C-alpha cells in the first residue's frame, strides 16, 4: 500500500464517518408521518387525490398550530408506489426503516394496502388506509385502520340498488382478476344479489392494463343481461363502457368506488350515461361540513375533490387528532414519537398508545361522514349511489348499513 | 352463432394489427437475421406521435377522416425516421459482431425507448382523442362492426398490399430480396447493402407506427409500456407464420388475433396472454419453420 493510497483511504473513511453522522441525528426533533400512494401509473388519480387530501389537512394544521402537535413540528414523507403492490411494500419498508415514520397513511387500492399492511403490523407502526375497502386489509393486524366502509357492505349496497331501485333480475359481472378489491367486491355483490332472488347470468374477467374487452363483452351480450356489474378501476371501466356501446350493449353498467376519479368521464364519455356506482360521498350533498371542505380543496388545488381526496383528508385529520390526544393525556409517552427516539423502547410504547387512541375514534365528524371505528378497525358509514347522466355525476340514493 | 361471428370480427381486427407489427419483425429478420426487440416500442412511439399530432391539429374537437389521415401519415413519417436513426446508431456498429451482440443491442434499444418514453411522455396513461367518431354498423344477425374497426382492417390491408407491391415489383424491393439471400452476392451486383437495410428498418417502423395509431383509434389508452406485450405477440405471430416470410406474418397475425379472442370468449380471459406462447411452443414442436416457412438444413 503506497502512501497515496493510504491517504486516499483515510479521506474516504472521514467522508464516510461524516455521512453516517449526518444520518444519525438531523438535529431537531419532529414527528415524521409517511404517506404512500400511486402518484403515477394506471390509477394515478387515486394517489394524487390522496396526496392532495393529506396536504390540505397539513396546510390547515400549519395555519392553525404552526404545523406542530404537542410542541413537535410535523413533517410528511410522501412516496410513489407507481400503482404496483410490490413497489408499495418497498416504499413502506423505506418509510419505516429509513425515515422512521410514526405512522403511515395509504393506500387506496386494496391490493397495495394488503402488501404494505403486514410490514406496518410487524413494525408496530399504525397504518391508516383512507379508502381500501377489501375486508382483508384490516384483518392483517390491530395496527391497521381504515376510514371507509368495507366491500361486504358495498356489494350489498349495489345489489340492493340493482334489485330494489332498478328492478333488475339478470346481471352479468366483469371483474379484474389481478385485483383483490375487484374479486372481493364481485363475490360480495353476487352473494347479496342472489340472496334477494337475482341471477348472475355470466361472470367473466380481465386483467388491469388490458385494452381490449370486446371478446368478454361479446360473451356477456350473448347472455342478454339487464345490467353489467364492473367492480374495477376507472381507467378500464371507461374503456369497457365505450366498447360495450360499440358492440350495441345498451344496458346500464354498475360499479363501486373504484370508479371514483375525475378521469372517469374523460375516458368513458357518453358511453357511461345511465350507469350507477357506489361511493363514499356525493359532491351535490348539501351538508355544510362537506361543502366547506370542497370549497377549501378547490381553493388550494383548483379542482373539485373526489371521495378519495375527502377520505385522505379525514385520515390525516383523525391521525392529527389522535396525536393531539396522546400529547395531552400522556405527554411523557408522547415524547417517544419524536424522531430522536426512533428504534427505542420509548418509541414502541408511544406507538402502542397511539394505536389504542386511534382505535377508540368515535363519532369523529369527518367530511365523508361520521367516523366511528368498530372492533375490526373499520368505519361504519352510509354509502351513496351516484348516477351518471348527460356526462355528469348526480346523487341518486343513500343506503345505510 | 352470431356471438361466434362477432368474436371472429373482433379477432380479425386485432389480428390485422398484430400482422402489421409482425411484418416489421419478419422483414428485418429476413434481411439481417436479427430479431429487432425494439420494434414493439416503435409501435408505442407511433401512437404517441399520433397523439401529439392529433392534439396539435385539435382533431379531437372536429373529428374527420382527413385529420385521421394526417395523423396516420405524421406518425408513419416520424417513426420511419426513428427507424433509420435506430438502425444507424445502434445496429450498424454491431452488424459484424456476433448475432448475440446484435440481439442484446436490440433489447437495450427496447429498454431505452420504453424508459425514454416514461421520461418524455410521463408514466401515466394518456387518452387518444376520438379523431374518428365511432359509428356502429350492423352486419345482420346481431353482428356489428364499428367504423373504426373497418378503418383498421382497410388501412392494414392497403398497407400490406402496398408492401407486397414494393417488395415484388420495385427495384428497391428486388434489392431487398437479393440482400435477404446473400449480403455479399448482392453487394457484388452493385446493391448498396447498407442503404437497403436502412430502408427495410424504415419500412418496418412505418408499419409499426401505423399499427400504433390504428390501435389508439379504437382503444384510446396509450402509455410508454404499451408496446411490450403486442410486440412480443407480434413476434410470435411472425414465427408462427414462418419468420422471414411476408405472407406468413400476415397469416400468423390473423391466427393469433382470432385465437386470443376465441380463448377469451369461450375458455377463460385469464389465458388470453398465455395462448400466444402456447401457440409458439406448439409451432416450434410441430413445424419449426412456421406455417409458410421452408425448413433449411443448418450447415455445421
Could you give the order of strands across the largest sheet of chain A? 8-7-9-10-11-14-15
In percent, how helical is the residue content of chain A? Answer: 40-55%
Q: Average pLDDT across residues of chain B?
A: 90
Structural class of chain B: mainly alpha
Uncertain regions spanning at least 5 consecutive residues of chain A: 18-26
Please give the most extensive interface between any two protein chains, plus how many residues each contributes: A-B, 31 and 37 residues
Structure commentary:
The complex is a heterodimer of chains A (401) and B (300). Mean pLDDT of chain A is 90; it is low at 18-26. In chain A, helix 2 packs parallel to helix 11. Chain A has helices at 3-24, 44-65, 85-97, 110-123, 151-165, 180-195, 214-222, 234-246, 264-268, 288-301, 307-329, 331-334, 345-359, and strands at residues 31-37, 68-69, 72-80, 103-105, 127-129, 144-146, 170-176, 199-206, 227-229, 253-255, 275-279, 364-366, 369-371, 383-389, 392-399. In chain A, the strands form three sheets. Chain A has a seven-stranded mixed β-sheet with strand order 8-7-9-10-11-14-15, with helices on both faces. Chain A has a six-stranded mixed β-sheet with strand order 2-3-1-4-5-6, with helices on both faces. Chain A has 401 residues and is of the alpha/beta class. Helix content of chain A is 46%, strand content 18%. Chain B is globular. In chain B, 72% of the residues lie in helices and 4% in strands. The mean pLDDT of chain B is 90. In chain B, helix 1 runs antiparallel to helix 8 (193-218). Chain B starts with a helix and ends in a 14-residue tail after the last helix. In chain B, the strands form two sheets. A two-stranded antiparallel sheet of chain B has the order 1-4. In chain B, a hairpin with a 2-residue loop joins strand 2 and strand 3 (143-146). Chains A and B meet through strand 8, helix 7 and helix 8 of A and helix 1 and helix 10 of B.
Amino acid at each position: 500500500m503506497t502512501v497515496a493510497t493510504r491517504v486516499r483511504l483515510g479521506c474516504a473513511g472521514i467522508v464516510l464517518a461524516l455521512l453516517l453522522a449526518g444520518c444519525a441525528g438531523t438535529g431537531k426533533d419532529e414527528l415524521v408521518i409517511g404517506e404512500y400512494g400511486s402518484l403515477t401509473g394506471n390509477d394515478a388519480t387515486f394517489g394524487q387525490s390522496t396526496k392532495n387530501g393529506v396536504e390540505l389537512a397539513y396546510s390547515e394544521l400549519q395555519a392553525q398550530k404552526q404545523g406542530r402537535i404537542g410542541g413537535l413540528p410535523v413533517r410528511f414523507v410522501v412516496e410513489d408506489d407507481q400503482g404496483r403492490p410490490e413497489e408499495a411494500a418497498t416504499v413502506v419498508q423505506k418509510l419505516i426503516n429509513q425515515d422512521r415514520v410514526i405512522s403511515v397513511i395509504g393506500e387506496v387500492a386494496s391490493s397495495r394496502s394488503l402488501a404494505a399492511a403486514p410490514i406496518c403490523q410487524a413494525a408496530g407502526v399504525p397504518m391508516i388506509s383512507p379508502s381500501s375497502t377489501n375486508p382483508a386489509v384490516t384483518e392483517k393486524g390491530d395496527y391497521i385502520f381504515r376510514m371507509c366502509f368495507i366491500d361486504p357492505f358495498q356489494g350489498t349496497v349495489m345489489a340492493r340498488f340493482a334489485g330494489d331501485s332498478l328492478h333488475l333480475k339478470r346481471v352479468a359481472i366483469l371483474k379484474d382478476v389481478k385485483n383483490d378489491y375487484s374479486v372481493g367486491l364481485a363475490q360480495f355483490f353476487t352473494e347479496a344479489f342472489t340472496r334477494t332472488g337475482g341471477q348472475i347470468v355470466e361472470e367473466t374477467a380481465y386483467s388491469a392494463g388490458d385494452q381490449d374487452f370486446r371478446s368478454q363483452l361479446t360473451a356477456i351480450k350473448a347472455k342478454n343481461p339487464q345490467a353489467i356489474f364492473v367492480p374495477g378501476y376507472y381507467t378500464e371501466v371507461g374503456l369497457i363502457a365505450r366498447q360495450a356501446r360499440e358492440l350495441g350493449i345498451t344496458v346500464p353498467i354498475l360499479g363501486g368506488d373504484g370508479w371514483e376519479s375525475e378521469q372517469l368521464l374523460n375516458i368513458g364519455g357518453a358511453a357511461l350515461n345511465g350507469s350507477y356506482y357506489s361511493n363514499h360521498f356525493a359532491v351535490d350533498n348539501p351538508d355544510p361540513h362537506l361543502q366547506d371542505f370542497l370549497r377549501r380543496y378547490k381553493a388550494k388545488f383548483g379542482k373539485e375533490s373526489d371521495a378519495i381526496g375527502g377520505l385522505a383528508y379525514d385520515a390525516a385529520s383523525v391521525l392529527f387528532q389522535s396525536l393531539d390526544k396522546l400529547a395531552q393525556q400522556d405527554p411523557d409517552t408522547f415524547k417517544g414519537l419524536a424522531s430522536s427516539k426512533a428504534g427505542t423502547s420509548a418509541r414502541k410504547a408511544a406507538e402502542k398508545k397511539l394505536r389504542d387512541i386511534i382505535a377508540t375514534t368515535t363519532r369523529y365528524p369527518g367530511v365523508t361522514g361520521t367516523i366511528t371505528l368498530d372492533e375490526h378497525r373499520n368505519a361504519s358509514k352510509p354509502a351513496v349511489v351516484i348516477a351518471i347522466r348527460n356526462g355528469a355525476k348526480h346523487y341518486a340514493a343513500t343506503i345505510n348499513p | 352463432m352470431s356471438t361466434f361471428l362477432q368474436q371472429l370480427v373482433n379477432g380479425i381486427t386485432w389480428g390485422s394489427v398484430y400482422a402489421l407489427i409482425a411484418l416489421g419483425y419478419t422483414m428485418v429478420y429476413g434481411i439481417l437475421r436479427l430479431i429487432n426487440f425494439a420494434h414493439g416500442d416503435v409501435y408505442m412511439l407511433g401512437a404517441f406521435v399520433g397523439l401529439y399530432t392529433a392534439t396539435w391539429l385539435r382533431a379531437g374537437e372536429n373529428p374527420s377522416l382527413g385529420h385521421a389521415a394526417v395523423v396516420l401519415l405524421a406518425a408513419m413519417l416520424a417513426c420511419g425516421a426513428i427507424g433509420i436513426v435506430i438502425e444507424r446508431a445502434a445496429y450498424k456498429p454491431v452488424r459484424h459482431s456476433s448475432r448475440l451482440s446484435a440481439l442484446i443491442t436490440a433489447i437495450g434499444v427496447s429498454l431505452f425507448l420504453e424508459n425514454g418514453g416514461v421520461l418524455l411522455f410521463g408514466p401515466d396513461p394518456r387518452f387518444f382523442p376520438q379523431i374518428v367518431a365511432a359509428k356502429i354498423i350492423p352486419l345482420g344477425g346481431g353482428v356489428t362492426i364499428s367504423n373504426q374497426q373497418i378503418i383498421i382492417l382497410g388501412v392494414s390491408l392497403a398497407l400490406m398490399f402496398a408492401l407486397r407491391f414494393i417488395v415484388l415489383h420495385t427495384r428497391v424491393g428486388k434489392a431487398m430480396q437479393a440482400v435477404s439471400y446473400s449480403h455479399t452476392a448482392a453487394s457484388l451486383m452493385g446493391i448498396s447493402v447498407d442503404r437497403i437495410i436502412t430502408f427495410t428498418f424504415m419500412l418496418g417502423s412505418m408499419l409499426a407506427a401505423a399499427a400504433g395509431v390504428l390501435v389508439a383509434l379504437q382503444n384510446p389508452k396509450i402509455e410508454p409500456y404499451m408496446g411490450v406485450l403486442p410486440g412480443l405477440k407480434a413476434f410470435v405471430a411472425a414465427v408462427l407464420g414462418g419468420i422471414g416470410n411476408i405472407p406468413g406474418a400476415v397469416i400468423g397475425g390473423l391466427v393469433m388475433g382470432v385465437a386470443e379472442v376465441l380463448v377469451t370468449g369461450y375458455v377463460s380471459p385469464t389465458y388470453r396472454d398465455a395462448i400466444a406462447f402456447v401457440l409458439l411452443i406448439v409451432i416450434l414442436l410441430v413445424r419449426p419453420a412456421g406455417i409458410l416457412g421452408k425448413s433449411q438444413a443448418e450447415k455445421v
